[in-house]
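In the laboratory, one determines a bound structure by crystallizing the protein with its ligand and collecting diffraction data. In a computational setting the workflow is compressed into a single prediction: the sequence and the ligand go in, and a structural description comes out. We illustrate the idea with magnesium ion.
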Amino acid sequence: MKIAVLPGDGIGQEVTREAVRVLDALGLPGLSLEYADVGATAWRAHGHPLPPATLEIARASDAILFGAVGDFDCDHLERHLRPEQAILGLRSELTLFANLRPAKTFDGLEAMSALKPEIARQIDMLIVRELNGDVYFGDKAIDTLPDGRRRGWDMMSYTEDEVRRIAHVGFRAAQGRNGRLCSVDKANVLETSQLWRDVVIEVAAEYPDVALEHMYVDNAAMQLVKDPGRFDVIVTGNLFGDILSDQASMCVGSIGLLASAALGDRQTDYGTFGLYEPIHGSAPDIAGQGKANPTATILSAAMLLRHSLGLERQAARIEAAVARILAEGVLGWDLGGTAATAQIGDAVIARL
Ligand code: IPM
Ligand code: MG
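The predicted complex, in structure-token form:
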């Protein structure tokens, strides 16, 4: 079982270290790890945020454990050299189109939510975010109009097959949960969203057991803080999913807690090939201080075991250990506690 480990930039290095220690602690036979550079780290060492060698190591693996990318020093670079292109490149090159971002309140952490505890307690949702299309991957430019004014533009589009395949992921996820799917779009304004909605309705015919509703993204942002318990599975496009998943993290309590999986169609010998990463970024402001919460990455490693390596029992063990340390009050800086990055890793390993 080959895992490509791509720690990346800033706190990506620190949180990935802890997730790898947790995997090591499980003592899984036949697991091999191969490290490679991505992001600003790779740009400094090799002149590109996603060097060909890194892409090949990722492609040849059964699963990828990814930290985070991003570095203010790179803000002036041409877009194709910026650190973010590493994660966008991996998602598109490896056709990892389905992003699963679960958000569930942890027992004992209700008071950490940005919401009232009795509202936060209800949160148990899965955001299914499309990852290969939308305004992220359309043509884009900053150009100059004939009259000399500068204009920035980004093309937003979805083809029907792109919508159909992510809709199927959403419906199947709902079948495995509470049978409710909320498709989030902006069909009252955007043609991209109108097609999205039309195709989701077509796909719904194959899933009579799933209750489908449609919601505009602005309303979804409101419902997420007003009544998050109403959501079971949300399926949405790349941009809306990016925004709503950050919002969901603060409803749970901290962006340092939410894990994610990026999956495609490719099967490995053990499960579905995928990339696993915390939903947070490289947080250069706290990098190197031991203040990063590795929980999201540790939980991403659990998702890796579940989806790519077929090791459900080991995944559940990690999740139970994380739930226990949080319930016991082992809290990082992001949650008002003092536990350092490595101490959180130690605590999880001790509970395993
Ligand atoms: C995420 C991140 C990325 C995204 C960035 C780093 C390109 O915000 O995974 O949510 O926008 O998808
Ligand atoms: Mg994001």
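The longest helix spans residues 11-26. Keep in mind that any predicted model is a hypothesis to be tested, not a measurement.
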